[in-house]
Every structure is written in C-alpha cells, then in structure tokens.
What does this fold into?
Amino acid sequence: MSILWYEWLTVIGIGALIGITDIISRYRDEPDDALGTMPSIFYLFVNAAASSLTLICIRAFEWNFGLQGQQAAWAQVLVAGFGAMAILRTSLWTVQVGEQSIPIGLNGFLDAILGTVDRAVDRKRAQQRAESVSVIMKDVDFDKAAQALPSYCFGLLQNLSAEEQEKFGRKVALLAAAPMHNRVKSLLLGLSLMNLVGEKVLETAVANLGADIQVTTPVVVVVESPVVS
It folds into this structure.
C-alpha cells in the first residue's frame, strides 16, 4: 500500500511534535532559544525520520491491526508516529561497568543529541542570562529574598509541582549556608529561579516585592561641629 502525501505529513508532524515537546520540557524558561539551535533542529529531524521509517516498515509488512480501509491506514500512521518514539527510547540491553549500569540502544543516541542541545543552549544563553540576572537582582538582599522571592514566584505559577518547590527549597538552604558574599548568593538565587519561572516572571516578582527584598541603604548622619567664635 502506497503512502499518501497527507499521511507523510501527519506522521512527520507527530514525530517532530514529540521532539519539540521533549525540548520544551527541558527548557521551560526560554524554549524558543532551545528550538532555534542546530542540534535541536537535528533532533527534530531524527524524530520525524524515525516516524517515517516506522510507517514504511508497517506498510511493507502490511500490519493492519485488525482494521480495514481508512481505519487501518490511519491506525498505521498513528502507531508509526507515536510508536517510533518508544522504539528510539528503548534500551536493548544493559552493560554493567563497575557499579554503573550503561543502557545499550538507540536511546543512548538520543541522549547524546540532547546533551549537544544542552551545551548549545548554554553557550547561546550564558551571556544573556548573566546580564539579565545582574540587572534584575541588582539591589536584592539575599537574606530578605531567600524565602519571599521564591514563594512569590511560585505563587504566580499554576502548574509548579510541590516536589519541584521542595527541591528548590533545599537548594536555597544549601545556598544560604554557603560561605559566599551576599551579592553572589543573590545572583545564584536569581539564576535558579530563572530556570524554573523564566526571566519575565522573575523580573516582575522582584519589581512587585520592591523594598521588601532590597538591600537596606545605611543612613549616614552627619553631625556638624559647633563653630566656636
């Protein structure tokens, strides 16, 4: 059975969409930056190609899944689109190297591509993030913001899980105990929050909390000596 153009389009779209979902889930703060890198585009191509090849195999072996006509055709397209991702993410066997278990299979290939995406995105965004967090957290006092700022940011979001919030709380506790300057702690707090909530939410939260989390400027009282005539 030949593959029609709209079947090609559908199966490629499903494969690419799953790849996009993978990348967006890894870079929730700025997914556009991640999707714009060459490794990301290659990752989408691999996902789309895998779905297409799976459809070719299904049609070649005439797997109809007990259906006939258009129902069978669309079932083949859907199985190919979603099933290819399961195949790519399956480990064929596991090799034990010392105390570490290393999975052998196509999922290792995908992990390698995603690792390349990670590095490409980090290089692309490092300078931008450094400049942004420096401006946003410029006057923020870590001791005042350590609890208030994350709580406010998390309150602005609707879908941040309790597990993620608890994990972030442990990170803040470690940061508070670290022997670092208050300014450095503030920057690291801002970067960590930026990873979870994004730059715009962090900027809005800092602006709204205002003086409640800002560094207190000491008041200098100048006492003039009396002039003795």
Summary: The mean pLDDT is 83. The chain has nine helices and two strands.
